[in-house]
Write a structure and sequence with these properties.
Layout: E1 5-9, H1 17-29, E2 33-38, H2 43-48, E3 52-55, H3 81-87, H4 91-105, E4 109-113, H5 120-126, E5 130-134, H6 158-175, H7 179-189, H8 199-203, E6 206-209, E7 226-228, E8 254-258, H9 267-277, E9 283-287, H10 289-292, E10 303-306, H11 311-314, E11 320-323, H12 327-335, E12 340-342, H13 349-358, E13 362-364, H14 371-383, H15 386-399, H16 404-420
Parallel strand pairs: 1-2, 1-4, 2-3, 4-5, 5-6, 6-7, 8-9, 8-11, 9-10, 11-12, 12-13
Length: about 425
């Protein structure tokens, strides 16, 4: 197989970084050259992993990973600043900078984070293979499921199918608010106009979904470009390297509280979660992450605070995880057999929390749930062994997942064939 020059296009969205880096490592281990077009704040971790860093020269020039560039902690269903600030507003400069990088570096394959999916047009313009990477479960609507990020529970029956059809059209309509500007750019590049903005996703050669198909609600019938490649279980790069061990002989249950590493106005829900553990016969550990590491919290005797700890060290000893429900955090918990209490804020978290509850792996609570409700959920999970039994099914599947290698080979063959042609 010929060595490929592969360009990844991404920004720092918090939970997207570990799965993107993990996928890059897979390609690098197969001997390919990896280039990453991204923000200056990710240069160090990109270079440290042996990849070639290519900086955005315009717009995405963030140097501090703690900066709240998304500003989406108060986003609503159809009033989300991410559309304008991240996905569509800077689309023209992202596409043009991607084109420049592809031409300069003689790129054979373009891999695009879903947060920047208009960048796929760069590969379309230069006629090279392209893949779109979803660092969470399926996002697009289908005949059997609602769109992602709406926090709507999938179901069956004629009423549910009608609901999903309406919601799917609402998503297409929302995205089409940006179709005119995208089509103006496409006209400049000599590309055919889009009928719908979401058609860009269907035009990708591959849509790589980084979760288990069994955890998700896959579209039926499956789109021809969709591949489930499984999650990346690596710890985030920024987590402290300090060692942690469970106290020997300690028999009390361990509850871990871990919310988003990016700012989502999570101080209140963290404090409520801490208060819920006060007085219970258990131990609690709170990992604050970059967004909250300098905040002050009231902590009872049975709870300790840590700015950060590797989940790979703590989760094997945990009995419950209280979390926002970001996909990376919850999938690492499932891989360690840890039931969850999810208090989602936004992004993909509400959908993830619904799936956790659907599979019997935990309890979903409103973000504003008080400490008594959280305490009740903790006690329910500790007293009901079915949660652990259900979680362990996913643990076994995650630890034995072998699906990525075949997909990587398929992508390599596609890119190599297109080189020859």
């Amino acid at each position: 197989m010929k060595k490929l020059n592969i360009l990844f296009v991404m920004i720092d969205g918090g939970g997207n970084v570990p799965p993107m880096l993990g996928l890059m490592k897979q390609f690098k281990n197969k001997g390919h050259n990896i280039y990453v077009l991204s923000e200056p704040c990710l240069e160090e971790v990109i270079v440290d992993n042996g990849f070639h860093f290519v900086p955005f020269k315009e717009y995405f020039t963030k140097t501090d990973r703690k900066e709240d560039f998304f500003q989406d902690h108060a986003a609503t269903l159809f009033k989300n600043p991410v559309f304008e600030r991240i996905i569509f507003g800077p689309a023209e400069t992202v596409v043009k900078q991607s084109i420049q990088a592809i031409e300069t570096l003689k790129i054979d394959l373009l891999m695009v984070d879903v947060l920047l999916f208009p960048a796929l047009m760069a590969a379309e313009f230069l006629e090279i293979p392209k893949a779109l990477i979803f660092h969470m479960p399926e996002y697009m609507p289908g005949p059997n499921r609602p769109p992602g990020n709406m926090g709507v529970k999938p179901g069956k029956g004629p009423f549910i199918r009608l609901r999903d059809k309406i919601l799917g059209k609402m998503l297409v309509t929302k995205f089409n608010q940006y179709k005119t500007s995208l089509n103006e750019l496409r006209a400049e590049l000599g590309l055919q106009a889009l009928k719908n903005t979401v058609d860009l996703m269907d035009q990708a050669d591959f849509r790589l979904i980084q979760t288990l198909k069994s955890f998700d609600v896959p579209i039926i019938p499956a789109p021809t470009n969709v591949r489930y490649i499984g999650p990346v279980l690596d710890d985030p790069d920024w987590v402290a390297t300090k060692e942690w061990t469970s106290e020997s002989g300690e028999e009390q249950p361990l509850v871990v509280i871990s919310f988003s590493s990016t700012f989502q106005n999570q101080a209140e829900v963290i404090q409520n979660s801490i208060n819920a553990l006060d007085g219970l016969p258990l131990r609690g550990i709170v990992t604050l992450g970059m967004a909250m590491e300098n905040n002050q919290f009231d902590v009872p005797e049975n709870v300790t605070l840590e700015k950060s700890l590797k989940h790979s060290l703590v989760f094997p000893h945990a009995d419950i995880l209280i979390t926002h429900g970001g996909h990376g955090t919850l999938i690492r918990a499932l891989a360690n057999g840890v039931p969850l209490i999810c208090l989602p804020n936004g992004r993909d978290q509400k959908d993830n929390a619904i799936k956790v509850e659907m599979h019997g792996c935990g309890i979903k609570l409103p973000r504003k749930a008080n400490s008594n409700k959280i305490r009740s959920a903790v006690e329910s999970i500790l007293n009901d062994k079915s949660y652990s039994k259900n979680v362990n099914k996913f643990r076994d599947e995650l630890l034995n997942f072998q699906g990525m290698e075949d997909v990587l080979l398929e992508i390599e063959e596609k890119a190599s064939f297109d080189q020859v042609v």
